[in-house]
Amino acid sequence: KRIEIIELLKGSDMNVNTLADSLGVTQSAVSQHLRILRSAGLVKDERKGYWIHYSLNREALEKCRQRLNRICTCGCLRKARKCRKK
Q: What is the pTM of this model?
């Protein structure tokens, strides 16, 4: 589900309720995944009124992609494009 959360957040910032509805899981489950993604530095949070909105830390994701490219010996990741905000 964490990869799916990252894919959803690629499009726009979202709150827990929206993510849970999109994924078909409980808010509690999404919160646990977000906690792990946030602690890894891949997701950022920002309070907007009553809600907390989550977004991708694109710089951290790009660093991960670069590191994976360096350790991948088959070259499959080298074809991946940079994540670009739509």
A: 0.77
